[in-house]
Amino acid sequence: MSAYQFFESIATKLLEGSPFGIAIAVLITFGVPVLLHIIFYRTVASPPSSNFLLLGPSGAGKTALLTFLESKSSFAAKPKSHPTHTSQTSTLATIRLPVSVPIGSNKYRSVNDTSLKEAQRNPTKYRVKDTPGHGKLRGSQGLSELLSMSASKDAQSKLRGVLFMVDTAAISETEALRDAASYLYDVLLVLQKRALQRGKSSAKAAAEIPVLIAANKQDLFTALPQGSVREKLEAEIDRIRKSKSKGLMDASADANEGDGEDDILGSYDLKDTFSFKAFEDEIGVNVDVVGGAVKGDESDEVGAGVRRWEEWVGQCL
Amino acid sequence: MLEAFEILSTSGVVLWSKSYAPVGSHVVNSLINDVFIEEKTQLQNTTNGVSPTFKKEKYTLKWRRSKDFNLIFVAVYQSLLHLGWIDKLLDNISTIFIDLYKTQLKGERARIAEYPFDKYFDQQVRELEDNATAGFVSDAPAADAEARKDPLASADNGGPPPPPPQAALSAATSDEGSPPQTPDIPRVSSPSSGHIITGKAGPGGRVSRRARKAANASATASSGDEKVRKGKTPKSGKKLRVWDADGLADEDDGRVLDYSAPVEDDDASAPAVEAVAEDTWGRRTGKGQFVLKDLGDEVHYILENADSEKAKSSAPSGLVGSGFSAIGGLLRNIVGGKVLTDADLEKPLKAMEDHLLKKNVAREAAVRLCDGVKQELVGKKTGNFQSVDAALKSAMESSLRKILTPTSSLDLLHEIDTVTKARNKQVNSRPYVISIVGVNGVGKSTNLGKICYFLLQNNYRILIAACDTFRSGAVEQLRVHARNLKELSARENVGAVELYEKGYGKDAANVAKDAVEYGSANGFDVVLIDTAGRRHNDQRLMSSLEKFAKFAQPNKIFMVGEALVGTDSVMQARNFNQAFGTGRNLDGFIISKCDTVGDMVGTLVSMVHATGIPIVFLGVGQHYGDLRGLSVPWAVNLLMK
Fold first, then answer.
1. Is the pLDDT of residue B265 over 70?
2. What CATH architecture is B412-640?
3. Pairing mode, if any, of strands B615-619 and B588-592?
4. Considering the entire predicted model, what is its pTM?
5. B327/B505 Cα distance (integer angstroms)
């Protein structure tokens, strides 16, 4: 009973028109909308929701690209790529797209759209996640990240594209080629499984995650041109595909009699040779090979080597 | 001399680096690969104060990790040199760097920000190097700290190598007072014997004051005394030489300061204050060191702060405080967001170790795994609503996954393909040679049969070489396998198989060599070599493996180990791995009899832990088709169940 009386006394105090009661009323009237605004603004306008994933074998230049893009978008006097070493952990960085790079969604806008002009002041941002390329860390960080990001329904962590970096100077050696190709095989397999699970309706095709094979280190003398990188990767993936289809089952295969056909990349008919074009036609996952260089463009304007990759990123936005 | 020093983040970006000589980036990369990722090198525990080192080519690398900021500090120096102060340098640099750039490192732009750290680093290196030449490095930490307080004083001392008996005596008589006082002695140019007596006599304060007075007298008196100094300078080190080059103008500076010095001196009797006065004096005369001095003070301030902080944190809090923290700890254990300490982890780690032991993981491997997890977790915060056990479990899972995942892909067919494709172009080249070794009775011949069947399915022509020329019945056993497989392959119309045998009693290495030659002459794609089983701790039998590897030149050497074996698996793997001589190791393990152990598949972990060599196949049954590749998630699941 005393509690009731206590509340009653408070209510009476508040309603009797004392300055204290008025102050509280004013505070609530103005404070609550402001508070609500802050809360909702935070959740909506927080980091850009277009994510890209940087994958690729160790030493391809993933971290170098990320730091270069980062320093480029931070208005540094002279953007440069920092020296890097083998990564052990993933990093996420927000990067500003250069104004001169057109955005893919521009085609839906009118020429007179004011937001096109505003882009000058308000450049598009995207996030890039760099992953370690070391063989032991690929599964736990690169591929699992790809799985979770591609599967997530949340707009925050939705994946817009995959940047797969390849060292074109090293790829002429069989060891490096095999390494890169087997990683790329795993990546494409994840995307293929995802595509097949969603069903084959054409409306879904637009939602597929495109892959850019960034043929890095084009500035080096021994680098292969992008066309031949494409050929080499296609041939190697074809070889992996064939040997995988003939290879042994995993120890886990006994437990759940999974359907084995999912595990082969590309068409089920092994007579066909693998090509990125056919893969796109069949699965709907777009794969581009574009050359570039993170380092070594002293003579050109800064960032010319990564310009074409940025354009690709712009097309995905 | 130090070759390079780098500060890098775990995400691979070099935040700051300094190199005195070009060091290829592959040196640091191999440190990261071998030590941090693959954990090839077994790190000794740092209990005895010696930090781990890593040797690559002609360099030795030492490092420190900062878990809070995910930073790695790496020092690279030539292995020929023994630099005792590297540990100190790493400690100091990591403290200073983190203290200076705390906010920047936590910020968004940590990776691309500029870190103007050169001067701090130079100061530290100079200081420690000078200390080292003065012979303080080998001293006790107390003396070291003292030396840190007045770097230049000891630097002055560093010039002329002090007569050995004097140094020894002064070090012996007074533990803490000797560094400040020694510089004065040469300046007064008193005979060294006299100093020994005073040094013996007792407290450092008195001695240095007397020395100070003498120095003052000399400074005020005339340039005559200056001459005495000058006369001595050619012998002395670089600091003094700089001072000498400044010439007459500089003497005024010194004198002005000297007037101030006695005032301080008279009311100061403690050696610490004495040392400071000494500092300013020495710095003033050595022109161009003003910046250095400020920097030094800043650095020392940081270092002392860090030290005192450490002392504070290690000091036990009051009864009430500990009670509160205990309750808070319990709450946080449920809610999450608890910073893990050694004590928190002790019990769950013990439970985890027992769990691993129950799964037939060798004790050595289990302890190592637990240590690794502990090092990873101590100082970390648990997630929201994550208990300590859950955090531990997920960390253990990821470290198991890491240890089992092979570094490069193990596509055997792919590799055979590349070899045989090269063969088609030129005739009479080598086939792909696989040899199988192992302890008695683990299933070498059985697994050889399984691999043979698997390769036959892929249309290869296979030669089986019976190099077990020791155990009776071994050749006949293989003959039966060969006959069965021949019939199977004929029925399915794939591949071809043949047995190469030379009876018993021959030297296995020679038989293997002949078999490979026979195989290449007759156009076989793959040669599978069966060897005699041998006990891994029998030196006589194991030594013949080296010759075998040299003669047969196998592309792959697989060791068969049974899943049933327990702790012995570590030694088996290690001994077989070393048996093939330098430059040749095992290429993979085949773990047989996996179907007989249920979920106790700890042998997988033990073997990989011991050698870092991946598991290629698992034997899961009695039939030819019962060969499987390793699936890491499957194995981790079984182990954590």
1. no
2. 3-Layer(aba) Sandwich (3.40)
3. parallel
4. 0.73
5. 74
Give the sheet arrangement for strand B2-9, strand by strand: B14-19, B2-9, B71-78, B59-66, B53-56
Residue-wise pLDDT for A70-103, tens only, equals 887 776 556 666 788 888 888 888 888 877 777 7
User: Looking at residue A19, what is its pLDDT?
Assistant: 85
Q: Which residues of chain A does B414 touch, with a Cβ-Cβ cutoff of 8 Å? A: 178, 239-240, 243
Domain B1-116 has CATH 3.30.450.60: yes
- Taking all residues of chain B, what is their mean pLDDT, rounded to a whole number? 73
Among B33, B70, B628, beta carbon nearest to A249: B628
Chain A residues close to B594, C-beta within 8 Å: 251
Give residues with Cβ within 8 angstroms of A55, minimum separation 6: A62, A131, A133, A142, A146, A162, A163, A164, A165, A183, A187
Mean pLDDT along residues B104-128: 79
- Strands B432-438 and B53-56, how do they pair? unpaired
Place of tokens 């702060």: B305
Cα separation of the two ends of chain A: 64
Report how far residue B276's alpha carbon sits from residue B278's, in angstroms, rounded to the nearest whole number. Answer: 5
Say what the ipTM of the complex is: 0.75
B6 φ, ψ (degrees, to nearest 5): -130, 145
Percent of chain B with pLDDT over 90: 11
Compute the CA torsion angle B153, B157, B159, B162 (nearest 10 deg): -170
Closest partner residue to A248 among B15, B409, B454, by Cβ?
B454
What distance in Å separates residue A317's CA from the closest CA in chain B? 23
Q: What is the pLDDT of residues A208-256, one digit of tens each?
A: 788 888 888 888 888 888 888 888 888 888 888 887 777 777 666 554 4
Question: Chain A: residue nearest B31 by CA?
Answer: A86
Query: DSSP for B396-460?
Result: HHHHHHHHHS-SS---HHHHHHHHHHHHHHSTT---EEEEEEESTTS-HHHHHHHHHHHHHHTT-
Q: What is the least distance, in Å, from the CA of A242 to any CA of chain B?
A: 9
* Cα distance between residue A238 and residue A181, in whole Å: 9
B-chain residue closest to A181, CA distance: B409
Q: Is 80 exceeded by the pLDDT of residue B166?
A: no
CATH number of the domain located at residue range(s) A48-247+255-316 in this protein: 3.40.50.300
- Identify the band that residue B123 occupies on the pLDDT scale cut at 50, 70 and 90: confident
Considering the segment(s) B319-404 as one domain, its CATH architecture is: Up-down Bundle (1.20)
pLDDT in tens, B491-543: 888 888 999 988 888 888 999 999 999 998 888 889 999 999 998 888 888 88
Structural contact between residues B552 and B435, judged by C-beta atoms closer than 8 angstroms: yes
**Range B178-183 average pLDDT:** 42
DSSP codes of every residue in B293-304: HHHHHHHHHHHH
Q: Please tell me if residue A203 touches chain B, with a CB cutoff of 8 Å.
A: no
Contacts of B4 in chain A (CB under 8 A): none
Spatial separation of the C-alpha atoms in residues B43 and B270, rounded to whole Å:
44
Instruction: Enumerate the residues of chain B whose CB falls inside 8 A of the CB of residue A177.
Output: none
Q: What is the rounded distance in angstroms from the CA atom of residue A251 to the CA atom of residue B64?
A: 40
pLDDT at residue B271 greater than cutoff 70: no
pLDDT digits (tens, 9 = 90+) for B34-50: 888 877 665 544 444 45
Neighbour count for residue A214 (Cβ, 10 Å): 30
Beta-carbon separation of B12 and A86 below 8 A: yes
Whether A86 sits inside 8 A of B407 (CB atoms) is no
Contacts of B454 in chain A (CB under 8 A): 248
The reply to whether A271 touches chain B by the CB within 8 Å rule is no
Main-chain dihedrals φ then ψ at residue A129, nearest 5 degrees: -110, 120
Q: Where in chain A is the domain with CATH 3.40.50.300?
A: 48-247+255-316
Amino acid of residue B571? M
